[in-house]
Design a protein that fits this description.
The protein is mainly alpha-helical. It contains four helices and no strands. It has a domain of 27 residues.
């Protein structure tokens, strides 16, 4: 025997029926707080704060302004670009381990 029951109700009615709490006021408060924090962050956008947010926990560098890890990031970037150009076809540079024919 198979029984099918269709119930048409709004999400609010379903939450009330199952005894779930209404989270709309809390959600509204959280969204307002998030918007406030994002606006505050946008107003104080300077490079030092951005780098501190984007690269937390990286060792401090000796650069002016104590931007954390910027020198390591630049070195990694340039090393990867150099490696990519050395492996590009027609770059004119021999790959490591490749022997030249005479």
């Amino acid at each position: 025997m198979k029984v099918t029951i269709n119930v048409e109700c709004t999400p609010e009615e379903a939450r009330t029926f199952f005894g779930l709490p209404d989270v709309q006021p809390m959600q509204t408060a959280m969204m307002d707080e998030m918007q406030k924090r994002m606006k505050d962050g946008m107003e104080s956008m300077d490079m030092d704060n951005l780098m501190k947010m984007w690269m937390p926990g990286v060792a401090q560098s000796g650069m002016p302004g104590n931007v954390p890890g910027l020198d390591q990031f630049q070195k990694m970037f340039w090393d990867s670009m150099t490696a990519a150009t050395n492996m590009a076809p027609g770059s004119g540079k021999a790959k490591k381990g490749a022997s030249k024919k005479a």
